Each structure stands twice: as structure tokens, then as C-alpha cells.
Automatic annotation (TrEMBL):
Protein name (record): VOC domain-containing protein
GO molecular function, one term: metal ion binding
Gene3D superfamilies: 2,3-Dihydroxybiphenyl 1,2-Dioxygenase, domain 1 (3.10.180.10)
Source organism per UniProt: Gordonia alkanivorans NBRC 16433
Top-rank taxon, per record: Bacteria
Pfam entry (one): Glyoxalase
PROSITE patterns: VOC (PS51819)
Keywords on record: Metal-binding
GO biological process, one term: L-methylmalonyl-CoA metabolic process
Sequence ranges assigned to domain VOC in this UniProt record: 14-139
């Protein structure tokens, strides 16, 4: 098919929401709500799944716990270990403080210490309690 045969999707929300399936909701909630400071919006039930929703800027981060445990787990080995969605990026004001909080929590691991990718832009990688990789970005000139 030719590209001109398709219409562009008309987005009604200019951000992407993210859903993470977990069987470890207590530690995941502690990490995202208490360590990262994301506001917990609500907890809802739909069929055989419980959903805890957090505000992440203009986006929603949703933690899903199914009544029946999933048959498999996510691939391990870092962001280059397999195809598919492998990490999420969160921009922060104080990378050093955030990494200190992650270490102090005892439920998150720092995978890669901060390094400068371009002038004034620093990144670091952390895993949450389930081993999901998060890239944290600090831009020194961010307003």
C-alpha cells in the first residue's frame, strides 16, 4: 500500500499513557508514588484486573494486576536484550537527588550512573522493583 492511502490518526490527547503489568503492586506503588513522587489517582477494577493509576506529567502511568498471573515475564538483560518497548523516559529537575532516593529506597537499582549525552543534558538508568528500565533525563537549561 502507498502511504498516501492512509489518513493520519487524529490524536485527542497529545501524550502516550503507559501500562505496566505487575504481580508486585505494593513495591511498585511504593516506588512510583513514594520514591518518584507521582500522585496516585485511583484504584479501579475491570473484570479480572485491578488498575492503579498515577499522574506522570500530562500522561497516565497504569499498574495492572491480573487475578491470574501472566504466563511469562518480561525479557531481562537491559534495553538491548530484546525487541519491543524496553524503557520509559522521565525528565527530572535533580538527577542526583532522585538517584539518592532510589538507592535509599532499597527497591530500585541504579543501572548506569549519570553521564552527559550533550552539553547540559544528563541521563541515568534505573530499574524499578519489577526490573523495568527507566531513563531519567536532566536538562540543565530546562525552564
Amino acid at each position: 500500500m502507498e502511504a498516501e492511502e492512509f489518513m493520519a490518526a487524529a490524536l485527542s490527547k497529545p501524550v502516550v499513557d503507559l501500562g505496566i503489568v505487575t504481580m508486585n503492586i505494593d513495591e511498585m506503588t511504593c516506588f512510583y508514588r513514594d520514591v518518584l513522587g507521582l500522585p496516585e489517582l485511583d484504584r479501579i477494577r475491570m473484570g479480572g484486573v485491578s488498575i492503579t493509576r498515577f499522574q506522570l506529567g500530562d500522561a497516565l502511568l497504569k499498574m495492572l494486576v491480573y487475578d491470574t498471573a501472566p504466563a511469562s515475564t518480561a525479557a531481562v538483560g537491559g534495553i538491548g536484550a530484546s525487541t519491543g518497548i524496553r524503557y520509559l523516559t522521565i525528565s527530572v529537575d535533580d538527577l542526583a537527588e532522585l538517584l539518592a532516593d532510589c538507592r535509599e529506597s532499597g527497591i530500585a537499582s541504579v543501572l548506569k550512573e549519570p553521564f552527559e549525552v550533550e552539553s547540559g543534558t544528563w541521563i541515568a538508568f534505573v530499574t524499578d522493583p519489577d526490573g523495568n528500565t527507566i531513563e531519567f533525563v536532566q536538562r540543565d537549561d530546562a525552564a
